[in-house]
Amino acid sequence: MRDSIARILVWALRLLLPAHGRHQAHNRPEPAPMPAEPAVSPWARPWTGPTKEEAAAYFRQQAETTMPLAQVQKERRAALEFTALEHDYPYSYPGAPFPRSAFAVSVIA
């Protein structure tokens, strides 16, 4: 019994492992050597960040879409007053699933 198990194991290992010794295939073509790529330091090239014009356009667009600080502070004060009165503050934003008019209480602007 042990002999048959050993033969099965040797047979399976011969299928799974590569050949070596005199049974190795000599006519297998050699793989082409890979060309060595020169090591390039990341410090060798300049930083590839946004240009001055791209950064200015980004900040200009951001300034147009955000509220001025005075309006933000006014909205925070109104929210605090509504909280003190135990009412929900009618907060809405672009793309909100509900309009500002969906709230029962209106804000005095």
Helix content: 40-55%
Order of helices and strands: HHH
User: How many H/I helical runs?
Assistant: 3
Q: Give the end-to-end Cα distance, rounded to a whole number of Å.
A: 94 Å
The amount of beta strand, in percent, is under 5%
Largest sheet: none
Q: Report the count of strand segments.
A: 0
Our Rg estimate from Cα atoms comes to 37 Å
Shape: elongated
Mean pLDDT rating = 78
Q: Which regions have little confidence, pLDDT < 50, spanning 5+ residues?
A: none
Main structural class: mainly alpha
Region (Disordered): 22-46
Description:
Residues 22-46 are annotated as: Disordered. The protein is an all-alpha fold. It has a domain at 65-109. It contains three helices and no strands. The model has no long low-confidence stretch (mean pLDDT 78).
Give a brief rundown of this model.
Residues 22-46 are annotated as: Disordered. The chain is mostly helical and 109 residues long.
